[in-house]
Specification:
Layout: E1 2-3, E2 23-24, E3 29-33, H1 37-48, E4 52-56, E5 72-73, H2 85-101, E6 106-116, H3 123-137, E7 146-149, H4 150-156, E8 165-176, H5 178-191, E9 195-197, E10 204-205, E11 210-213, E12 216-219, E13 222-225, H6 231-237, E14 246-256, E15 263-267, E16 274-280, E17 283-287, E18 291-292, H7 303-316, E19 326-337, E20 350-355, E21 358-363, H8 369-382
Parallel strand pairs: 3-4, 3-13, 4-9, 6-15, 13-21
Antiparallel strand pairs: 1-2, 5-8, 6-8, 7-8, 10-11, 11-12, 14-17, 14-18, 14-19, 15-16, 16-17, 20-21
The structure holds flavin-adenine dinucleotide.
Flavin-adenine dinucleotide (FAD) binds next to helix 1 and strand 19.
Length: about 375
């Protein structure tokens, strides 16, 4: 199959590839396993590269981790402390892409970062971090951070707890409707030719490209395993070694039945961790937690996590919330690469590993899913 960059067909590996190079590509039959954001974006990139793509999702599209996020399109300010500059820069670039493509489902969000007497990070340290965050966003910046004194900050968010408040910063990130935006991306992937199969649990895969579904085997040129938290488990039941280990870390959120005039990112008192109080569809979203969990049961917000988040909320907001204010909770499992004893220090990077005709994706943020998809398409092509 001849793919050329002169409007004659899709360009190789991506969205921004130079349009002048003509490339000869043999279209492959590729199966993608996983209908979360990383699977959908991988399938889309592969279809744009000219391959014939079938996507298999055992439940419904965006039914797992990808609709249980904090709903931020971000570089991840706190990952700067872990020196994850590459990932932060990629996230900052990708957040702008999502907002540009789907402004009806993603928008810039100004977030307050208060500094209290008890905060572990002094204002000068936060200022350096925000300066770097802004610098790494380059020409994709959504706006510059600013320092506000205590009174100005309380005008922006009147419900911020005033005791011990020294002032604080505002900075910009993106907010999205993760499920709706993921389904929007799935629709674009469908338009590019991806055939989506929901309620299609893959039983196992073979390193030579076989995929087992309802007891029968279909042969593919390539199989891409993007099963999120279940990616290593799928390799295990298939008898294929996984070079990396996933650390599965549950994160829970609360939805409170009250409006939130401005989003807040704050330290959890007594910890280095940070958490959020954000506006969400006319209500307040509070999150999140980090609890290791096995795959053998559904991730759910525990009573202890609910108490922890209410305590966090009530420490930084003037009007306390109780259990009766919680209208719903949701939880998801972060598929983190095992890299640190403390989950909040664990890398948010992703890796792509190959075993025969099987390519497996481990880790990855929602925000960076398009970049990840492009990498997957390039790896599938390279592994020919
Ligand atoms: C609490 C929390 C907060 C987060 N907040 C943010 C945030 O604000 N911003 C951000 O950028 N990122 C955030 N993330 C990270 C982001 O949500 C995840 O990294 C991302 O959604 C993972 O997507 P995925 O496609 O890899 O996995 P998933 O969305 O879990 O998709 C994997 C899919 O594979 C399917 N599957 C599994 N096994 C099989 C099988 N055998 N056959 C067929 N299908 C199968 C599953 O049903 C699932 O739908 C957060 C994560 C968590 C948990």
């Amino acid at each position: 199959m001849q793919l050329a960059g002169h409007g004659l067909g899709p360009v190789l590996n991506g969205y921004d590839a130079p349009m002048s190079r003509a490339v000869t590509v043999q279209a492959l039959r590729v199966a993608v396993i996983g209908g979360g954001i990383n699977g959908v974006m991988s399938a889309w990139a592969l279809a744009k590269a000219g391959h014939s793509v079938e996507l298999y999702e055992r439940g419904t599209l965006m039914g797992a981790t990808s609709s249980a996020s904090t709903k931020l399109l971000h570089g991840g300010l706190r990952y700067l402390e872990n020196m994850e500059f590459r990932l932060v820069q990629e996230g900052l670039r990708e957040r702008a892409w999502w907002i540009g493509q789907a402004p009806h489902l993603a928008h810039p969000l100004e977030i307050i970062l208060p500094v209290y007497d008890w905060s572990r990070r002094p204002p000068w340290m936060v200022r350096i971090g925000l300066g770097m965050y802004h610098w790494l966003s380059g020409d994709r910046s959504l706006g510059k951070h600013r320092w506000h004194d205590r009174d100005a900050l309380l005008r922006l968010q009147p419900d911020l707890a005033p005791e011990g408040l020294r002032g604080g910063f505002t900075f910009w990130d993106g907010q999205m409707d993760d499920r709706a935006l993921g389904l929007w991306a799935a629709e674009r992937a469908r338009e590019a030719g991806v055939r989506m199969h929901e309620n299609a649990p893959v039983e196992r895969i073979d390193a030579d490209g076989g995929l087992w579904l309802s007891g029968s085997r279909t042969a593919f040129d390539r199989v891409v395993n993007v099963a999120g938290p279940w990616a290593c488990e799928l390799l295990r039941v298939s008898g294929i070694a996984c070079a990396h280990t996933l650390d599965l870390v549950r994160g829970s959120h609360l939805i409170l039945d009250r409006p939130c005039p401005a989003g807040v990112l704050a330290e959890v008192q007594g910890e280095r961790r940070i958490a959020f109080v954000l506006p969400w569809q006319g209500r307040t979203l509070v999150g999140t937690t980090e609890e290791r969990q096995a795959l053998d049961h559904e991730p759910r917000c525990s009573d202890a996590e609910r108490e922890y988040m209410l305590a966090f909320h009530n420490r930084i907001m003037r009007t306390p919330a109780g259990v009766s204010d919680v209208v719903s909770t949701f939880a998801g499992l972060r598929p983190l690469l095992r890299s640190a004893a403390d989950p909040s220090r664990a890398t948010r990077e992703y890796v792509i590993e190959a075993q025969g005709r099987v390519t497996t994706v481990l880790g990855g943020k929602w925000t960076t899913a398009r970049a990840l998809g492009e990498q997957v398409a390039a790896r599938v092509l390279k592994g020919r």
